[in-house]
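Hi R.,

Here's the chain you asked about this morning:
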Amino acid sequence: MKIVILGLGAALILPFPTFGDQSEPRMAQVRPKDMNRTGERYYEDWQTLEVRTVDGLEDYEPRGIPLGRYGDRTDMQFEATGFYYTKQVDGKWWILSPDGHPLIHIAMNSVNLRVSDRIKKSFDGKYSSLEAWADDAVSLLKRYGYNGAGCWADVDQIRAYNERHNTHFSYVYHLSMVADYRDTLDRSRGYHESGQELFPVFDKEFEAYCVYRASKLVAYRDDPNLFGYSFDNELTWARDLLDTYLTLPEKDSGYQAAMNWLTARGLTPVGPFTDGIRDQFRAFVMDRYFSAISKAIREVDPNHMLLGSRFYWNNRIYFDDNQSGMLTNPLVFQTAGKYVDILQCNYYFRWTPVPEEIDAWTEWSGRPFMITEWYVKGDDTGMRNRRGAGWIVGTQEERGMFYQNFALQLLESPNCVGFHWFRYQDKEGSNRGVVDYDFNPYPVVLEWMDELNSQVYSLRDHFQ
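And here is the predicted structure, written out as tokens:
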């Protein structure tokens, strides 16, 4: 295991003994997941793919880099604002901790107890209280190199944990803003139709709803452990938003906004619409969404970062035009970049991140990015592993190898400032967690994670 020397409020992480020097590349057995033209997901046949791991890096010499109380590197110092923020230094983006030290946000999603009956039974047999569970869960993550919780965390329990232990484990506050507002609407308005996703952001009531929800955030305004606000998850900002808004009733605010937008450009609802026109309207809708939520939050909390909505490979896959999806369209990121501090991208269907894809996000937006969902599932648990976008690998060791392979490519990017694994606990018959249904950790996976996490700053320096 790694050796930690404590003193003067900081930890010095000495090089982690590796799993043996690797002169030959490691290989993993993998079942990729893909989509067909209708958006239906399916698993391909088993393949053997190469894996890059820490112990196989050429000319890499681990360095002991002192760590601060936020999991930040204390060998570099910038302005200490008391809250997290971002800064580009010599062409490389960093998150700066409340103490002003550079940080890579290594977080775990869904650190919560939104439980099934099976998990509730396991919880009752293992823990005496929610506080006992939180102590176990957060201490486990910290022990294996995680410095925060991503979306869907039990915020109250994490804040209480920090208070009890006088520590600084960060958390993301996920709002689910437009998704929750849409759920308040009558379904007859047309915003819940199957096969399409529309957003009622042109309602006057939506602005009032944002103000109301933001008013509840005053309790978090001065908390240095709050990492930032996530607006929504995987909203489908599809290219054909213009077409679908025009299917709404004529008196609806969304239809009227689309008509006014067309009229101002000398266009009519009968079209035909070019993809360029559709992209501009998509950006118009997104601008309304981001501006309303950002303004409402900033009125209450000027201190914390805005993370926006989590982009993803939307199910509407267009094989003839690469720019139709969210993760490949410049206007999507240009629009978000006007309002957010960090881009959130859920990045599946890749064994290794593609540099040309991920670095384009920052080029288009002027903002750094985090990968806010990624994982693979092990075939050795007995679970069916049908649910979720993650690929399947043969063993827990291969899950850990995937973690290193994926994260090493992210650390090569000067624009990536964090990665959030999905998720804390297995769910829905799929091996996505770092603990099972009975709260037992997967030690092999966690050891592989820790080997990389404990050297994250040394590795980033090595690559750049």
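One quick note: Confidence is low (pLDDT under 50) at residues 3-10, 13-19.

Cheers,
M.
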